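New to this. Please check this record:
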Amino acid sequence: MLDEATRTAILKLKAAGHGTRAIAKALALARVSVRRVIASGAAVPPPILRVELAEPWREAILELYARYEGHLGRVYEDLLARGAALSYPTLTAFCRKHGIGAPPPPPAGHYEFSAGQEMQHDTSPHWATLGGERVRVQIASLVLCYSRMIFFQVYPRFTRFECKAFLTEALCYFGGAAGRCVIDNTHVIVASGTGETMIPAPEMAAFAERYGFVFKAHKVGHANRSARVEAPFHRIQSAFLAGSQFCDWRDLNARARETCVKWNAAFSDKLHASRRELFAAERGHLKPLPLHVPEVYQLHSRIVDAEGYVNLNRIRYSVPWRLIGRTLEVRETLERIELYDGPRRVAGHERVWSPLDTRVTDPAHRPPRGEHKRERAQPAPEALEMLQLEPRMANYLAGLKSQIGDRRAPLRRLLAMLQEYPREAFLAAVALAEQYRLFDLERLEKMVLRQIAHDFFVLAIDPEDGDD
């Protein structure tokens, strides 16, 4: 079809009185084409009326475009599964022509990075379908700027604990760290300042020092500076989260890791290689990992409640019932909850994120039915020792037991009195206390002291003082 400039020239030459043959010869055109333009009398080319292969699938395209949140690759796969006979370029051309999708992005800046020079870290809030429910999630991503190797995970929240745990997992995935890590001005890492004046929090600076890199922040609003990590978030949302169902957080992050492996191994037209191939050249320039990579955990102190549980993030975890009332150290990792009584590990559970107020119970932490009652029925060790030393105290011990219940502190005090005071004086006081149903050990001890006062507390009289 002739363009607008050629059609305008034909009409001008015709208006100047030139014939069809002369116009065709001057413009190197076929005479039939010149006649058609003259017959139409319009310089603007007529619209092309042709059947579009994607037109019958318009409604399906609009439906799938909304379901997959704009990811045309997944729309195309679904159309093929439904029997559509069209190519991917046909689909993209149809969407561009009819305005299906976002407008073209504005031009971005360009930065060059050498191998091992920089990595970029950022987070972004998104929505995911988890266990049949739509939940708000935080996606954390780390990208090596030279090879574009990417690693991302998903969390229900993102504090400094999750940040350190994620960066540890990402650096282990890469096998090392770049010299600097560029971030936005997030309070998770930043203690004060922005951009060049940013000062990281001491614990984050110590974390970076352990792995041999430093945190740097870009200027506020200068998102192009961290484009290596900003750009993949749309792909993660559209090509990973959109339209996908996940069982729980472990399933979500396991599939996220599989997706990283898949994307890093795929050939990139923009890079003219795969990320994995470029990473082979960059890996030797990364800071090596330390000899020991400790597991990141958050430390808490919790008292075991009357039901034998500790409460952490509104999830209750069981501990051995004998520790009720004790203060335990709780170590919270991304996958586990470990409980320590001093230096000894006493319990461990897989971490539960939801639903809130869930009870996680290990049957081994509960006594067999009736065992606790049997233990209560057995005499305390202090009572058994007293009966071995002095069987005549059996009646008094039975009466004392009815008064104090399961408390053992009074028994320990009574045993100490039996061992320390003269036996006969002590037993005489006990017999008198038993007669009057007196089980106050303070008064019992005063009675014993009264019994032995003349034997042990007589003051010596100086002979020179005389009878006075």
